[in-house]
Amino acid sequence: MKSFGLTDKGMVRKDNQDCFIIEKCDQRSSLIVALCDGMGGAKAGGLASQLSNKAFVSYIYAKLTSRTNRNFDYRDILQSACAEANGVSYEYSKFDEAYNGMGTTLVGGVIKSNGNGYIINVGDSRAYHISRRGNSIYQITRDHSLVEELVEVGAITKEQAKRHPQRNVITRALGSEAEVEADYFEFTLQSGDILLLCSDGLSNMVTDLEMLDYAKEYQEPELICRALMSKALKRGARDNVTVVAVMK
After folding, report:
1. Banded pLDDT at 182 (limits 50, 70, 90)
2. 197 vs 199: CA distance, rounded Å
3. 191: phi > 0 → left, psi -120 to 50 → alpha, else beta; which?
């Protein structure tokens, strides 16, 4: 598998509260990937995303490399890793008033060399499955956001959601409560398929079809990420922008 990631503070924000990790686990022929988008002020949001990201990936890596484990329940591992990441940020937010209310989104998981993938998410950072052979892009995760809830009940359309003044309001985040509920998904990458993770700084600037077009135009994850980042920045990138691509 090939992988690459990029993050940028964008054209408006002074700080970058996004972060990502791509970690190889050679023992299990796997990649561990995670992306976080922090919130709660310059220092607090950035700290929440970094703490949660590291805790999430470290927990998974320890489980995958444990000598006592042979059969892996990926749902349980990812949910436990998410709970660990949430606890780290939540406890830190109680330690200092300056960090009170900090939180972060999270999307991440494990992709095995055979293409089997396991993903979990909290918030509105997304995971997409892109098939170049099938000329298709599919959003694996579901946004935990106010506008997504409005779309589901039919109050607004998906097109209206993209321009809604409260489109950045999320309904779940790591670190804001003692416990958080995450969604779990499984998927399979075929040869040439791409798993794309991104923060809303990208998905608010670049359409799903544009993501698919770039994935078809460029053959390497690095080139895909750089092209998407360039497009977001040229359009004004009002938020931090992060994108990670994994190709089988």
Report:
1. very high
2. 7
3. beta
